[in-house]
């Protein structure tokens, strides 16, 4: 398989264009941008837009506008995953030819009921291997009633890594999905292929993806790619501790404008939450670039006060 080598150090932000970016997304974007720009690395914008059911065309533009309003820029070209389907399918074909994957006919409900590990973000419940050793006859029989996803054969030893924010981590690597049962390449595969192709040096993303990283490192090994380092930024949470969402109130730049706040106000609030300025201090993205220190980033989530989100 193609082996990628690092050349120009590069970082990235990779949102899904399913709605306006909320302040949790923007906070992660600020850290990702600063991590790249403070040492003069490239910074790429990639749209994870393979799920046609949830993508909205207008949000390619709205998300770019929100980033620009905060003072963030990026290097061309902008990448859309929908333009790279042939690349993902080529990688999948190679995995199939090497007998590293197998068809899985299980529904999500069946997996939830059979799995012993709790559901966590993209990593999901650990797959118990129900379809791993089906005979050809059994696969043919099940294919008559349900389309198959493709699962990669994992490693029970898991993988460890040193997160640049959270420290040492280790997670199991179960048999995870690399192609959905509708034929769409799955998140775990495409994020590795894309980050490798773009020479991403440090993957900065929200910490709900921390437990997916061992799977991604496993894929890097199988595909012969040089892995990046990882920096997982703690989430922004609603006052009740739930992951932040639109339903919680004034969470987008547009919402905050309704509260009389400018994008500069929001950036400064986010910067203070990241220990990059004092509460109430006004800062610009350019100023933050000069004072950014990854070692000072918080390791606990930002829990918003109820009055912050009030409409």
Task: Please give a structural write-up.
The longest helix has 15 residues, at 23-37. It is globular and about 65 Å long. It is built from eleven helices and twelve strands. The chain has helices at 23-37, 58-69, 85-97, 108-114, 136-143, 187-197, 213-223, 253-258, 263-273, 285-291, 306-309; strands spanning 10-13, 42-47, 79-80, 101-104, 149-152, 155-163, 167-173, 177-179, 202-206, 229-233, 236-237, 302-303. The protein is of the alpha/beta class.
Distance between the termini: 52 Å
Q: Which ranges are low-confidence, i.e. pLDDT below 50, for 5 or more consecutive residues?
A: 116-121
Strand content: 15-25%
Number of helical runs? 11
Sequence of strands across the biggest β-sheet: 1-2-3
Second-tier CATH architecture of the largest domain: 3-Layer(aba) Sandwich
Helix-strand pattern: EHEHEHEHHEEEEHEHEEHHHEH
Task: Let me know the average pLDDT.
Answer: 92
Q: How many extended strands?
A: 12
Gyration radius, in Å: 20 Å
Total of domains: 2
CATH topology of the largest domain: Rossmann fold
Instruction: Assign the CATH class of the largest domain.
Output: Alpha Beta
Shape: globular
Largest sheet: 3 strands, parallel
| CATH homologous superfamily identity of the largest domain | HUPs
How much helix, percentage-wise, in residues? 25-40%
Judged by helices, strands and strand pairing, the structural class is: alpha/beta
């Amino acid at each position: 398989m193609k082996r990628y080598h690092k050349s120009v150090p590069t970082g990235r932000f990779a949102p899904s264009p399913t709605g306006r970016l909320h302040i949790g997304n923007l906070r992660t974007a600020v850290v990702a941008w600063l991590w790249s720009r403070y040492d003069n690395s490239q910074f790429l914008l990639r749209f994870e837009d393979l799920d046609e059911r949830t993508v909205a065309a207008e949000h390619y533009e709205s998300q770019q506008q929100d980033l620009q309003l905060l003072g963030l820029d990026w290097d061309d070209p902008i990448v859309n995953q929908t333009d790279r389907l042939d690349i993902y399918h080529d990688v999948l074909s190679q995995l199939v030819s090497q007998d590293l994957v197998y068809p899985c006919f299980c529904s999500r409900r069946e997996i939830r009921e059979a799995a012993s590990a709790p559901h966590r973000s993209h990593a999901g419940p650990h797959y118990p291997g129900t379809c791993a050793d089906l005979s050809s006859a059994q696969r043919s029989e099940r294919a008559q009633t349900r389309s198959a996803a493709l699962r990669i054969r994992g490693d029970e030893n898991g993988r460890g890594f040193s997160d640049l924010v959270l420290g040492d981590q280790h997670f199991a690597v179960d048999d995870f999905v690399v192609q959905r049962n509708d034929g769409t390449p799955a998140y775990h595969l495409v994020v590795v292929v894309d980050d490798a192709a773009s020479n991403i040096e440090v993957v900065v993303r929200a910490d709900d993806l921390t437990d997916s990283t061992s799977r991604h490192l496993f894929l890097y090994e199988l595909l012969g790619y040089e892995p990046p380092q990882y920096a997982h930024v703690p989430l922004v949470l609603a006052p009740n501790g739930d992951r932040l969402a639109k339903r919680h109130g004034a969470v987008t730049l547009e919402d905050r404008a309704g509260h009389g706040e400018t994008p500069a106000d929001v950036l400064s609030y986010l910067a203070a939450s990241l220990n990059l300025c004092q509460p109430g201090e006004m800062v610009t993205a350019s100023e933050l670039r000069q004072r950014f220190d990854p070692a000072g980033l918080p390791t606990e989530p930002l829990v918003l006060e109820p009055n912050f989100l009030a409409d």
